[in-house]
Amino acid sequence: MNFVNMDKHGDDEQQARKLLTAVERIVASSASIRATVEGVQATLKSSHPELKGDELRERVARALVKHYSDRAAIAGGASALPGLIPGWGSLVAALGGTVAELTFLLKWEVEMALALSHLYGFDIEAPAERQLAFLMASVGTYDAGGKNFFVDVLKLEGTAMWNYAPRRVARIVVQALAMLLARYVWRGFLKAIPVVGIVVGGSVNKLLTQKVGARCLRDVQTRRGLMRDQAREASAGARKKKPARRKAKKAPRREPPAETLN
Question: What are the two backbone dihedrals, phi and then psi, of residue 155, each rounded to the nearest 5 degrees?
Fold first, then answer.
Protein backbone atom coordinates (compact mmCIF):
# COMPACT_ATOMS: atom_id res chain seq x y z
CA MET A 1 0.00 0.00 0.00
CA ASN A 2 1.38 3.44 -0.93
CA PHE A 3 1.10 5.48 2.26
CA VAL A 4 2.73 8.51 0.61
CA ASN A 5 -0.09 8.75 -1.95
CA MET A 6 -2.69 8.23 0.76
CA ASP A 7 -1.20 11.06 2.82
CA LYS A 8 -1.11 13.33 -0.24
CA HIS A 9 -4.74 12.53 -1.07
CA GLY A 10 -5.73 13.34 2.52
CA ASP A 11 -3.82 16.64 2.42
CA ASP A 12 -5.43 17.60 -0.91
CA GLU A 13 -8.90 16.90 0.45
CA GLN A 14 -8.19 18.88 3.61
CA GLN A 15 -7.04 21.87 1.55
CA ALA A 16 -10.13 21.53 -0.63
CA ARG A 17 -12.40 21.61 2.42
CA LYS A 18 -10.63 24.75 3.65
CA LEU A 19 -11.19 26.33 0.25
CA LEU A 20 -14.86 25.34 0.32
CA THR A 21 -15.31 26.87 3.78
CA ALA A 22 -13.60 30.08 2.66
CA VAL A 23 -15.88 30.39 -0.38
CA GLU A 24 -19.00 29.67 1.68
CA ARG A 25 -18.11 32.51 4.04
CA ILE A 26 -17.86 35.16 1.33
CA VAL A 27 -20.69 34.14 -1.00
CA ALA A 28 -23.39 36.81 -0.99
CA SER A 29 -26.73 36.19 0.67
CA SER A 30 -29.67 34.89 -1.32
CA ALA A 31 -31.44 38.24 -0.86
CA SER A 32 -28.46 40.09 -2.35
CA ILE A 33 -28.31 37.70 -5.31
CA ARG A 34 -32.04 38.08 -5.97
CA ALA A 35 -31.62 41.87 -5.83
CA THR A 36 -28.85 41.65 -8.44
CA VAL A 37 -31.07 39.60 -10.75
CA GLU A 38 -33.98 42.00 -10.32
CA GLY A 39 -31.71 45.00 -10.91
CA VAL A 40 -30.34 43.57 -14.16
CA GLN A 41 -33.86 42.62 -15.25
CA ALA A 42 -35.22 46.10 -14.51
CA THR A 43 -32.39 47.74 -16.46
CA LEU A 44 -33.02 45.57 -19.51
CA LYS A 45 -36.78 46.13 -19.34
CA SER A 46 -36.33 49.90 -19.29
CA SER A 47 -33.86 49.93 -22.18
CA HIS A 48 -35.61 47.22 -24.23
CA PRO A 49 -39.35 47.34 -23.40
CA GLU A 50 -40.09 45.08 -26.39
CA LEU A 51 -38.41 42.10 -24.70
CA LYS A 52 -40.85 39.61 -23.17
CA GLY A 53 -40.93 36.09 -21.75
CA ASP A 54 -38.15 33.68 -22.72
CA GLU A 55 -36.38 36.27 -24.85
CA LEU A 56 -36.14 38.66 -21.90
CA ARG A 57 -34.99 35.88 -19.58
CA GLU A 58 -32.19 34.85 -21.96
CA ARG A 59 -31.00 38.43 -22.30
CA VAL A 60 -30.98 38.82 -18.53
CA ALA A 61 -29.02 35.56 -18.23
CA ARG A 62 -26.35 36.81 -20.64
CA ALA A 63 -26.15 40.11 -18.77
CA LEU A 64 -25.69 38.25 -15.48
CA VAL A 65 -22.84 36.18 -16.93
CA LYS A 66 -21.16 39.42 -18.06
CA HIS A 67 -21.77 41.01 -14.64
CA TYR A 68 -20.05 38.19 -12.76
CA SER A 69 -17.28 37.56 -15.31
CA ASP A 70 -16.30 41.25 -15.09
CA ARG A 71 -15.94 40.91 -11.32
CA ALA A 72 -13.94 37.72 -11.68
CA ALA A 73 -11.58 39.54 -14.05
CA ILE A 74 -11.07 42.36 -11.54
CA ALA A 75 -10.32 39.84 -8.81
CA GLY A 76 -7.85 38.03 -11.06
CA GLY A 77 -5.94 41.19 -11.89
CA ALA A 78 -5.96 42.54 -8.34
CA SER A 79 -4.54 39.31 -6.92
CA ALA A 80 -1.39 39.86 -9.03
CA LEU A 81 -0.70 43.37 -7.72
CA PRO A 82 1.78 42.21 -5.03
CA GLY A 83 3.95 41.02 -7.92
CA LEU A 84 4.82 44.68 -8.57
CA ILE A 85 6.71 44.71 -5.26
CA PRO A 86 10.15 43.04 -5.72
CA GLY A 87 11.17 40.21 -3.42
CA TRP A 88 8.52 39.71 -0.76
CA GLY A 89 5.63 40.75 -3.01
CA SER A 90 6.59 38.20 -5.66
CA LEU A 91 6.63 35.38 -3.11
CA VAL A 92 3.19 36.35 -1.83
CA ALA A 93 1.84 36.45 -5.38
CA ALA A 94 3.34 33.04 -6.21
CA LEU A 95 2.52 31.14 -3.05
CA GLY A 96 -0.43 32.89 -1.40
CA GLY A 97 -2.19 34.80 -4.14
CA THR A 98 -3.23 31.74 -6.13
CA VAL A 99 -5.52 30.27 -3.48
CA ALA A 100 -6.90 33.72 -2.67
CA GLU A 101 -7.68 34.30 -6.34
CA LEU A 102 -9.34 30.91 -6.72
CA THR A 103 -11.45 31.63 -3.64
CA PHE A 104 -12.78 34.86 -5.13
CA LEU A 105 -13.17 33.33 -8.58
CA LEU A 106 -15.36 30.59 -7.12
CA LYS A 107 -17.30 33.15 -5.07
CA TRP A 108 -18.35 34.98 -8.24
CA GLU A 109 -19.06 31.76 -10.10
CA VAL A 110 -21.19 30.30 -7.29
CA GLU A 111 -23.14 33.56 -7.07
CA MET A 112 -23.57 33.49 -10.86
CA ALA A 113 -24.91 29.92 -10.68
CA LEU A 114 -27.33 30.95 -7.92
CA ALA A 115 -28.43 34.03 -9.87
CA LEU A 116 -29.16 31.96 -12.98
CA SER A 117 -30.99 29.37 -10.90
CA HIS A 118 -33.19 32.08 -9.36
CA LEU A 119 -33.82 33.61 -12.80
CA TYR A 120 -35.10 30.25 -14.07
CA GLY A 121 -37.44 29.71 -11.15
CA PHE A 122 -35.45 27.59 -8.66
CA ASP A 123 -35.54 28.26 -4.93
CA ILE A 124 -32.01 29.35 -4.02
CA GLU A 125 -32.90 29.34 -0.33
CA ALA A 126 -33.11 25.53 -0.49
CA PRO A 127 -29.89 23.82 0.70
CA ALA A 128 -30.02 21.42 -2.27
CA GLU A 129 -30.02 24.32 -4.75
CA ARG A 130 -27.08 25.97 -3.02
CA GLN A 131 -25.17 22.69 -3.17
CA LEU A 132 -25.89 22.43 -6.88
CA ALA A 133 -24.60 25.98 -7.39
CA PHE A 134 -21.28 25.00 -5.78
CA LEU A 135 -21.20 21.87 -7.92
CA MET A 136 -21.90 23.78 -11.15
CA ALA A 137 -19.20 26.34 -10.33
CA SER A 138 -16.47 23.90 -9.29
CA VAL A 139 -17.05 21.29 -11.99
CA GLY A 140 -17.64 24.00 -14.59
CA THR A 141 -14.32 25.65 -13.73
CA TYR A 142 -12.52 22.33 -14.07
CA ASP A 143 -14.20 21.57 -17.41
CA ALA A 144 -13.48 25.07 -18.75
CA GLY A 145 -9.91 23.93 -19.26
CA GLY A 146 -11.06 21.51 -21.95
CA LYS A 147 -11.46 18.48 -19.69
CA ASN A 148 -14.43 16.52 -18.35
CA PHE A 149 -14.50 16.13 -14.58
CA PHE A 150 -17.05 13.32 -14.59
CA VAL A 151 -14.94 11.32 -17.05
CA ASP A 152 -11.51 12.16 -15.63
CA VAL A 153 -12.30 11.77 -11.94
CA LEU A 154 -15.60 9.97 -11.39
CA LYS A 155 -15.43 7.81 -14.53
CA LEU A 156 -19.07 8.64 -15.17
CA GLU A 157 -20.79 10.24 -18.12
CA GLY A 158 -24.35 10.92 -19.06
CA THR A 159 -25.72 11.36 -15.53
CA ALA A 160 -27.29 14.76 -14.87
CA MET A 161 -25.62 16.37 -11.86
CA TRP A 162 -28.93 17.48 -10.36
CA ASN A 163 -29.92 13.82 -9.97
CA TYR A 164 -27.20 13.16 -7.39
CA ALA A 165 -28.14 12.82 -3.71
CA PRO A 166 -27.11 15.78 -1.47
CA ARG A 167 -24.39 13.77 0.28
CA ARG A 168 -23.02 12.70 -3.10
CA VAL A 169 -23.02 16.32 -4.31
CA ALA A 170 -21.04 17.47 -1.25
CA ARG A 171 -18.43 14.79 -1.87
CA ILE A 172 -18.08 15.66 -5.57
CA VAL A 173 -17.63 19.37 -4.76
CA VAL A 174 -14.67 18.56 -2.48
CA GLN A 175 -13.13 16.34 -5.19
CA ALA A 176 -13.54 19.05 -7.81
CA LEU A 177 -11.98 21.71 -5.57
CA ALA A 178 -9.01 19.44 -4.85
CA MET A 179 -8.45 19.03 -8.59
CA LEU A 180 -8.75 22.79 -9.13
CA LEU A 181 -6.18 23.54 -6.45
CA ALA A 182 -3.72 21.19 -8.14
CA ARG A 183 -4.26 22.81 -11.55
CA TYR A 184 -4.01 26.41 -10.27
CA VAL A 185 -0.46 26.17 -8.90
CA TRP A 186 1.18 27.11 -12.22
CA ARG A 187 -0.77 30.37 -12.39
CA GLY A 188 0.82 31.54 -9.16
CA PHE A 189 4.23 31.65 -10.80
CA LEU A 190 2.90 33.63 -13.77
CA LYS A 191 1.51 36.16 -11.32
CA ALA A 192 5.00 36.64 -9.88
CA ILE A 193 5.99 38.34 -13.19
CA PRO A 194 5.14 42.08 -12.90
CA VAL A 195 2.41 43.37 -15.25
CA VAL A 196 2.14 40.00 -17.06
CA GLY A 197 0.48 38.52 -13.98
CA ILE A 198 -2.18 41.23 -13.93
CA VAL A 199 -3.06 40.70 -17.60
CA VAL A 200 -3.09 36.90 -17.24
CA GLY A 201 -5.16 36.97 -14.05
CA GLY A 202 -7.81 39.32 -15.43
CA SER A 203 -8.24 37.88 -18.91
CA VAL A 204 -8.11 34.20 -17.92
CA ASN A 205 -10.57 34.67 -15.07
CA LYS A 206 -13.03 36.48 -17.31
CA LEU A 207 -12.84 33.78 -19.97
CA LEU A 208 -13.19 31.00 -17.38
CA THR A 209 -16.23 32.61 -15.80
CA GLN A 210 -17.86 33.14 -19.19
CA LYS A 211 -17.42 29.44 -19.98
CA VAL A 212 -18.77 28.43 -16.57
CA GLY A 213 -21.71 30.80 -17.06
CA ALA A 214 -22.54 29.27 -20.45
CA ARG A 215 -22.51 25.80 -18.90
CA CYS A 216 -24.62 26.85 -15.90
CA LEU A 217 -27.11 28.48 -18.26
CA ARG A 218 -27.45 25.26 -20.29
CA ASP A 219 -27.97 23.27 -17.09
CA VAL A 220 -30.71 25.49 -15.65
CA GLN A 221 -32.45 25.73 -19.03
CA THR A 222 -32.38 21.95 -19.36
CA ARG A 223 -33.74 21.47 -15.84
CA ARG A 224 -36.51 24.00 -16.42
CA GLY A 225 -37.44 22.32 -19.70
CA LEU A 226 -37.57 18.90 -18.09
CA MET A 227 -39.69 20.16 -15.22
CA ARG A 228 -42.08 21.83 -17.66
CA ASP A 229 -42.36 18.62 -19.69
CA GLN A 230 -42.97 16.56 -16.56
CA ALA A 231 -45.67 18.97 -15.43
CA ARG A 232 -47.37 18.73 -18.83
CA GLU A 233 -47.23 14.93 -18.80
CA ALA A 234 -48.62 14.81 -15.27
CA SER A 235 -51.44 17.17 -16.26
CA ALA A 236 -52.24 15.13 -19.37
CA GLY A 237 -52.19 11.92 -17.35
CA ALA A 238 -54.57 13.38 -14.79
CA ARG A 239 -57.03 14.36 -17.52
CA LYS A 240 -56.93 10.86 -19.00
CA LYS A 241 -57.53 9.19 -15.66
CA LYS A 242 -60.37 11.48 -14.74
CA PRO A 243 -63.57 9.40 -14.94
CA ALA A 244 -66.24 10.58 -17.33
CA ARG A 245 -69.28 12.08 -15.65
CA ARG A 246 -72.17 9.66 -15.76
CA LYS A 247 -75.47 11.11 -16.71
CA ALA A 248 -78.09 10.64 -14.03
CA LYS A 249 -80.80 8.25 -15.09
CA LYS A 250 -84.21 9.77 -15.34
CA ALA A 251 -86.75 8.23 -13.03
CA PRO A 252 -89.35 6.26 -15.00
CA ARG A 253 -92.54 8.14 -15.50
CA ARG A 254 -95.28 6.72 -13.34
CA GLU A 255 -98.54 6.18 -15.21
CA PRO A 256 -101.77 6.84 -13.35
CA PRO A 257 -103.64 3.63 -12.38
CA ALA A 258 -106.14 2.46 -14.92
CA GLU A 259 -109.78 3.06 -14.02
CA THR A 260 -111.74 -0.10 -13.24
CA LEU A 261 -115.42 -0.72 -13.91
CA ASN A 262 -117.53 -1.81 -11.03
Answer: 60, 35
- 153 phi and psi, to 5 degrees? -105, -50
Asked if residue 168 lies in contact with residue 38, where contact means CB atoms within 8 angstroms, the answer is no
Per DSSP, the three-state class of 28 is: coil
pLDDT in tens, 139-175: 988 888 777 888 877 766 556 788 888 888 999 999 9
- CA 139 to each of CA 61, 97, 176, 211: distance values in angstroms, whole numbers, following the listed order: 20, 22, 6, 11
The answer to the question of residue 28 being in a domain is: yes
Q: How far apart are CA 236 and CA 238, in angstroms?
A: 5
pTM of the shown model: 0.76
Buried b (16+ CB within 10 A) or exposed e, 224-260: beeeeeeeeeeeeeeeeeeeeeeeeeeeeeeeeeeee
Q: Containing domain of residue 145, as a range?
A: 16-226
- On whether residue 30 sits in a domain, the answer given is yes
Contact 141, 207 (CB under 8 A): no
